[in-house]
Design brief:
Helix content of chain B: over 70%
Order of helices and strands of chain A: HEEEHEEHEHHHEHEHEEHHEEH
Number of helices of chain B: 15
Shape of chain B: globular
Radius of gyration of chain B: 21 Å
Largest sheet of chain A: 6 strands, mixed
Structural class of chain B: mainly alpha
Strand order of the largest sheet of chain B: 1-2
Shape of chain A: globular
Strand content of chain B: under 5%
Strand content of chain A: 15-25%
Number of strands of chain A: 12
Largest interface: A-B, 44 and 33 residues
CATH superfamily of chain B: ABC transporter involved in vitamin B12 uptake, BtuC
Strand order of the largest sheet of chain A: 6-7-8-3-9-10
Number of domains of chain B: 1
Oligomer: heterodimer
Helix content of chain A: 25-40%
Largest sheet of chain B: 2 strands, antiparallel
Radius of gyration of chain A: 20 Å
CATH class of chain B: Mainly Alpha
Order of helices and strands of chain B: EEHHHHHHHHHHHHHHH
Number of helices of chain A: 11
Chain lengths: ~280, ~350
């Protein structure tokens, strides 16, 4: 189920963001080689895979945080590293895993910093900036927190504030690196609902790395399954999520049933006993 | 809901807009006024006391020959060196603290002052050099230390704790070298070295003012142009990158500027302790605004140093007590107060 001829032919079309045969490595440790990924325009693409499969690394390469050792990442047909930094920042936003709220910063101030790529030395705070910031806060439901300090907020609220900051950047593409980590289930769904809404109502292209396969299957319009730095499968969740794929990617035996709420694939891990029998049978 | 923001936007019809923090602006104006007032008081202080009104008149060029000599030749350079050194240290400290995201990431703790001292001591003890050579030695010592810290701490960007720890290590080495040089020195050289090591503005003339002024004239605008990028850097490298800040370049420019400012200031006045550490912290508490607070820190440093020099002259007589002792005491007390109150507030 590797890169099918169909997805190869898609590569020549004009999706705005893609990686072509990239080699990704930290110092000497190679995470992925000859990896090619296409982000379909206007999709909510979710990248899944086991720990250390390279999914966050891929996202870092797509957002030019990591320079590929080989190959190239293309944004609107240009090599992303060769583009002016601020121009990229007006096209592609990123919500990284590690972000630091400076001491004593208010929500409005933090969200306002998302306007940086639209500003300059003599254009520091236009009326447009102000409008976009309040619109972003309204959209993410943090408008009433505007004057609160970020360090006083709960984890879920804080994540909304960071998303608001990324929205204020007004980029047609938005990349999110594990946006639901450290949140409880209610806030995880809350953040994912918000992402789905941004995707549906504004036609933004969203790319997220998610840990939870069921969340991925429920929210993604396009799923990319990675293992050991290779794309094992990609496509709509309904088309590609099967028990075989989950076993192949995660090494987990399971059933895939229809989510009673949404009809999307729902992964139910096999009972411990069943898995133990399999191991015995295999040996 | 009470409004905490004192930031206002000023816009022109042509599409230009400036963002002004009114509170920070007020703090800057008040600090500048305080620095100037302390400067005038300092000029009037000494064996020949001159009333403030006469000082102002003489500065404007309307004094008699005697006052003109004392004010414009003897004491004004000293005040200007004080203002420039204090401002440089305040700005350098703010840059270091912001880049390392750690209040301890300031030149005092990182060993830059000790490095400058080592350079100065080499010239005093081993070469018995002139005061100009001592200044050059201190400058070189500071720059070499800055380079060493840069090379040792730089690993995919500066991480706060790494920078502080490397700095403490470098500082320990430089302190050991300084101790060794002092034991090697004869009595006269040792006395000269110790005076230099406390940090003093005594006997500074126009020859010290010009190079320092020229350096500040280049570096301060350069730093301020990069200040918005620095604000973004406070949210972490990834966020800054995502917002289109050229992280490595901005950080390199700012660190080099900070090292140059600190080394030049230390070369001019000796390692005046704690200004670089405390000025940014004090400025930040006055403006109550997040961000590096570069201009308020600069003004705070200038005001602090000149005020400390005036206080030491006033209390102990002309040049009895080097200014570094006063800033050391004030800075130490302030640091302790800071730690105690922060602890109460539940931090650290």
């Amino acid at each position: 189920m590797r890169a099918t001829p169909e997805s190869d032919s898609k590569r020549s079309t004009v999706n705005r963001l893609s990686a072509e045969n990239v080699t990704l490595a930290y110092d000497q440790r190679v995470i992925a080689e000859q990896l090619s990924v296409e982000i379909p325009d206007n999709s909510f693409t979710v990248i899944v895979g086991p720990n250390a499969c390279g999914k966050s690394t891929l996202l870092r390469a797509l957002s030019r945080m990591l320079r590929p050792g080989g190959g190239r990442v293309l944004l609107d047909g240009q090599v992303i590293q060769s583009m002016p930094a601020k121009k990229v920042a007006r096209t592609l936003g990123l919500l990284p895993q590690s972000s630091i709220a400076p001491d004593g910063i208010t929500v409005a101030d933090l969200v306002g910093r998302g306007r940086y790529p639209h500003q300059g030395l003599l254009r520091q705070w236009s009326a447009q900036d102000e409008r976009v910031v309040s619109e972003s806060m309204r959209r993410t439901g943090v408008a009433e927190l505007a004057e609160r300090y970020v360090d006083e907020l709960s984890g879920g609220q804080r994540q909304r504030v960071w998303i608001a900051m990324a929205l204020a950047q007004q980029t047609p593409l938005l990349l999110l690196d594990e946006p639901t980590t450290y949140l409880d289930i209610q806030h995880q769904i809350d953040v994912l609902d918000l992402c789905a809404e941004l995707h549906e109502t504004q036609g933004r292209t969203l790319v997220a790395v998610l840990h939870d396969l069921n969340h991925a299957a429920r929210y993604a319009t396009h799923l990319i399954a990675l293992r050991d730095g290779r794309v094992i499968a990609e496509g709509a969740p309904n088309d590609i999520v099967t028990a075989e794929l989950v076993e192949q990617v995660f090494g987990l035996r399971c059933q895939v049933i229809d989510d009673p709420e949404t009809g999307t694939p729902l992964v139910v891990p096999a009972a411990r006993k069943a898995r133990a029998e399999r191991i015995t049978a295999a040996s | 809901m009470k409004t905490r923001s004192t930031t206002r936007a000023v816009r022109t019809p042509g599409g230009l807009s400036l963002r002004l923090d009114l509170r920070a602006l007020l703090v800057v104006v008040l600090l500048l006024a305080a620095a100037c007032a302390a400067g005038v008081a300092l000029i009037g202080t000494g064996d020949a006391k001159i009333p403030a009104a006469d000082v102002l008149r003489t500065l404007a060029g309307n004094g008699n020959a005697y006052q003109d000599f004392i004010v414009n030749e003897l004491r004004l350079p000293r005040v200007l060196v004080g203002l420039l050194v204090g401002g440089s240290l305040g700005l350098g400290g703010a840059l270091f603290q912001s880049v390392s995201r750690n209040p301890l990431g300031s030149p005092d703790v990182l060993g830059l002052s000790q490095g400058s001292t080592a350079g100065a001591l080499v010239v005093i003890v081993l070469l018995s050099g002139t005061s100009t050579q001592v200044t050059a030695g201190a400058l070189i010592g500071g720059l070499v230390t800055g380079l060493a810290i840069y090379l040792l701490a730089w690993k995919q960007g500066v991480h706060g704790y790494r920078l502080v720890l490397v700095g403490i290590g470098v500082s320990a080495v430089a302190t050991a070298v300084n101790g060794y040089l002092l034991t090697k020195a004869d009595l006269v050289d040792a006395a000269r070295a110790v005076v230099w090591m406390t940090g003093s503005l005594g006997g500074r003339d126009w020859d010290q003012v010009w190079p320092l002024l020229a350096l500040c004239a280049v570096l301060v605008p350069l730093v301020l142009v990069h200040a918005r990028g620095l604000r973004m850097l406070e949210m972490g490298d990834d966020v800054a990158n995502a917002l289109g800040v050229r992280v490595q370049r901005v950080r390199l420019v700012l660190m080099v500027s900070a090292v140059l400012l600190t080394a030049a200031a230390t070369a001019a006045a000796g390692p005046v302790s704690f200004v670089a550490l405390t000025a940014p912290q004090l400025a930040r508490r006055l403006t109550r605004s997040p961000g590096p607070n570069l201009v308020p820190s600069l003004c705070m440093g200038a005001a602090l140093l000149v005020a400390a020099d005036w206080a030491s002259q006033r209390a102990f007589g002309a040049d009895q007590l080097p200014v570094g002792v006063v800033t050391g005491v004030l800075g130490g007390v302030y640091l302790l107060w800071l730690l105690v109150t922060e602890r109460r507030a539940g931090r650290i």
